[in-house]
Amino acid sequence: MKAGAFIAAATAWGALAAVTAVASASSGRAEEPAFALTVRSQPPAQPVVFRVRKDDAVMVALSSEIAAEIHLHGYNLEARLAAGGTATWRFAARATGRYPINVHRPGETAGHRHAPPLAYLEVRPR
Amino acid sequence: MSARRFLAVAGALLAPAPAAAHAIGERYDLPLPMHLYILGGALTVALSFAVVALVVRTHGAAPKFRRTASGAASPLLAGVADVLQVLGLAAFVLVIAAGLVGEQHPARNIAATLVWIVWWIGLAFTAAFVADIWPWLNPWRTIAIIAGRILPPRAARDYPRRWAEWPAVCGLFLFVWFELVYPAPSHPRTIALVALAYSVVTLSGMAVFGRESWVRRGEAFTLFFALLGRFAPISVGRGGVRFRPWAGGLARHTPLSGAMVAFILLSLAAVLFDGFLGTGVWRAFDRLVRDLLPLGADRDSLIAATLALLGLWLAFLGAYHLAARAMAWMAKTDRSGREIARRFALTLVPIGVGYNLAHNLSYLLVQGQAIAALLSDPFGFGWNLFGTASWQPEIGVIDAGAVWTVALLAIVGGHLIAVYLAHVVALRLFATRGQALRALVPMTVLMVVYTGISLTVIAEPLVRFRKPDPDYTRLDWPALHARAAARDDPAS
After folding, report:
1. Which of A65, B136, B374, B448 ranks highest by number of CB atoms within 10 Å?
2. Smallest CA–CA distance from A76 into chain B, residue
3. Do A13 and B42 touch (CB under 8 A)?
4. Which fold has domain A6-124?
5. Does residue B293 fall inside a structural domain?
6. B247: in domain
7. B224 or B242, higher pLDDT
8. Containing structural domain, residue B374
9. Which ipTM was obtained for this model?
């Protein structure tokens, strides 16, 4: 095969990339997704994943069966709950990324890696 | 394997990954989406052949890399060197002091951020994309230079030839183990103690064998940053500042030592290992080791992660030596596989550089900002030296879409440069073009595999979105409305 054919193939792939990128970047209006998250004495088998899009107005209703501090990293939202307590986070998902939501119990050592998070908030680009 | 165990492993492969992070600054990267992953893989394969078609068929001989000396005024260069030496030494003293006497929360002490983000990631970027300035920043070298001026001169022993670069290989392995396997790598006092222990080893090495001869073969970071520095367009040395094409420093076919080959493959495995710890393959392996060992024996995954790091390195090294043998066989040359391995090892470096950029770009840009606040209050004592102590990293500095584009370009681009370099070396090394082309087949296949692994680690194609577990996410609308009403009611 000639060099030209390879260049053509590479160009075709590039064009395909552009088309897919445009297609996946379909813009939509900001939504107002709402989630609930409950802390139980046993963590879930797999972390819970919440998916939103950038600029969505997000609400997370928190509740806990045990005394716990819940922390959404990156956005730096915290909630201190007593056993049976509730709290609500409302925020605009201004930055893309995958942010862990961790539960800190009293007496955890600083410097250690966190246990697997309770949940992730995934903010995807528009 | 029982059906239940199998399901558990399969489930682990499909689950979203808990990223293994330092306790300071976690990673907030979104994995590369599926269409970009597939595109990256296709580009990798297609462009590998395009390199063959364009470079090898059009160039009769190996292209030459030209270097130009800038003729930069050497007093200026000496001034820059002095400043960097003072900076490096000051940062070293700060890390030790903050680690030993500062507040022990990793995020409120400058030690962890300065070491893991500014130095280990930031300097790796600087070395690969600007110039390797570590020889000047290197605090141990600076201490040795000062000691050499004060203390009476003494005869250095000859560095044992058969040690080659093995001390540096051990050093890098232990360091990466501390970074990614040890459970508390960000604990300030631990960082200070590790730095002091490494100082004892390095200063002794320099005292016994002479400063430069230890730095060149025994000091892991000098070798690591120099390797990345060969990719950079600028090289600084005794001859002043020199400019060269990107990756020009890697287009060498003078044989390296076997230790250096092991070092290069360890560097590749090391940059990949952090990402690897976020994959389903790792979690399945971790679970397997946990199940095989007595209950609770591997609570922090120390055994599993040590085995995985060692295994990844040895697998990379083994695959490379195997490919080198295949190259010797394909080219029907009397050069041994071992010799070929030693002559081509440098061409692998761009793959590591590309992955490192893709993996760490947003991490450095977001979490690197923490240094502004920490400089104002390095010990966590509540100071505010520069008025920046309350600065919070802005998480929106770079959009995931931009990160994905850069990641794809970096990984595919690094691969392309690697394949190109391998062609250059092959054309210089083998007598005929046919030999070079045949020898390049196994090497190109190996590079495609390495790049495929990089893409897979960064994309996590096996991660599928699962509906949240209803036990943890049941939304109780009436209760919520009642709460909102109670909050809005001024009487309550």
Report:
1. B374
2. B392
3. yes
4. Immunoglobulin-like (2.60.40)
5. yes
6. yes
7. B224
8. 3-468
9. 0.82
Contacts of B53 in chain A (CB under 8 A): 1-3, 6
From chain A, pick out residues whose CB is under 8 angstroms from the CB of B187: 110-112
Contact A64, A85 (CB under 8 A): yes
Answer yes or no: is pLDDT of B223 > 60: yes
Please answer yes or no on whether B35 and A20 come within 8 Å at the CB atom: yes
Structure confidence by residue, pLDDT tens digits, A54-80: 999 999 999 999 999 999 999 999 999
Q: Which of A46, A59, A60, A114 to mutate to test the interface with B (most CBs of B within 10 A)?
A: A46
A69: distance to nearest CA of chain B, Å?
16
A76-83 LR contacts (CB < 8 Å, sep 24+): A76/B392, A81/A39
Q: Read off the pLDDT band of B279 (50, 70, 90).
A: confident
Q: How far is A76 from chain B, CA to nearest CA, in Å?
A: 9
Into how many domains does chain B fold? Answer: 1
Distance CA B143, CA B140 (A): 5
* The pLDDT of residue B454 is above 70: yes
* Residue A1, pLDDT above cutoff 50: no
Pick A10's closest partner by Cβ from B15, B47, B483.
Answer: B47
Residue range B400-432, pLDDT digits in tens: 999 999 999 999 999 999 999 999 999 889 988
For B21, the closest of A7, A16, A113 (CB atoms) is: A113
Q: Of B261, B64, B99, which is closest to residue B190 (Cα–Cα)? A: B99
Does B287 map to a domain? yes
Residues of A in contact with B46 (CB under 8 A): 6, 9-10, 13
Interchain proximity B400–A125, CB inside 8 Å: yes
Question: In this model, does residue B337 exceed pLDDT 80?
Answer: yes
Q: Is residue B480 part of a domain?
A: no
Q: Which residues contact B127 (CB under 8 A, 6 or more apart)?
A: B133, B134, B225, B226, B228, B229, B232
Whether A48 sits inside 8 A of B469 (CB atoms) is yes
At B185-213, the pLDDT tens digits run 999 999 999 999 999 999 999 999 999 99
Q: Where are the domains of chain A?
A: 6-124
Chosen for mutation from B282, B473, B477 (greatest number of chain A CBs closer than 10 Å) is B473
Q: pLDDT tens digit string along A86-98?
A: 999 999 999 999 9
Q: What element of type H or E holds B412?
A: helix B400-429
